[in-house]
Amino acid sequence: MKHSFHSYLYYIIMLTLVGILLLALYFLYVWKTDVPANQDYYRDFTALKSDTQEHRDWQINTKTTSNKDILITAIHGGGIEPGTSELAKIISKKGDYNLYSFEGLLKSNNSKLHITSTHFDDPKLKEMNNKSEESISIHGVQEQEKVVYIGGKDKAMAKSIRKALEKAGFNVEKSPHHIDGDSAQNIINQNDTGSGVQIEISTKYRKQFFEDGRLDRSSREQTHHYNHSIYSFAEAVTKGIKAQTIKK
To answer: What is the pTM of this model?
Structure first.
């Protein structure tokens, strides 16, 4: 009887330990896939602006066109998520769309200037966004595989852009939860229609946008260092936007 009790207790302890181990592995997986790698240094644009200097630490580029319904944004441009502002400008030019680009100019540690999309509240961007029916936001994700994630509340536009990118040969996958762009507080979903599209491009793809895979400032600021893939990507996004816009 005593031996049976000890055996029973042993199995209970082993099952408990296995359960704890599995639970720990599960939470580790969730943490790695659903939690952003970096935490913002500044809580919002006001805090960033009060502690930094425009044109020295960062700059904003905007463009208003006759096509006022569509806004292309890159709120983590320059050295923050390299390649995003450059791509946004090409898309804006190709489609004759409005543009808002916030660009980090620090010599290093530009990630300090990163403000998450749900807290990025620059009045200029909010003004432009409020006048737009469609907002397309270009972001970079630290991912070494060739992958593009597309999210946002405008599922129809996201689907149209995804089809165009896949047709152009780019690998598009479902967005992890923390970059799915579905929050109502996300700046792209605060336009006139309350829905936009968030495009997250992996590091590997963004490196392919430039000669020798270099993401340094000099490579990004001189167009003769641009590879065909950045124009191909921009063309695909533009085609996706136009295809869905025609349907409306």
So the answer is: 0.83
Instruction: Give the full edge-to-edge strand order of the sheet including 134-141.
Output: 58-63, 97-104, 67-78, 134-141, 197-202, 148-151, 172-173
Report CA-CA distances (Å) from 86 to 72, 171, 187, 238: 11, 20, 20, 15
CA pair distance 238, 89, nearest whole angstrom: 12
Look at strands 58-63 and 97-104 and give their pairing.
antiparallel
Beta pairing partners, 73? 100, 137
Give the pairing type, strands 148-151 and 58-63.
unpaired
CA separation for the pair 160, 27 (Å, rounded): 34
Q: Which residue has the tokens 């599209």?
A: 197
Tokens of 78: 């320059």
Taking the C-alpha atoms of residue 129 and residue 157, their distance in angstroms, rounded to an integer, is 17
pLDDT, tens digit, for every residue of 37-92? 448 999 999 999 999 999 999 999 999 998 879 999 999 999 999 999 999 999 99
Among 69, 187, 177, smallest CA distance to 117 is for 187
Torsion on CA atoms 166, 70, 90, 57, rounded to nearest 10: -120
pLDDT of 149-165, one tens digit each? 999 999 999 999 999 99
Beta strands in the chain (DSSP E): 58-63, 67-78, 97-104, 134-141, 148-151, 172-173, 197-202
Phi and psi at 246, nearest 5°, equal: -60, -35
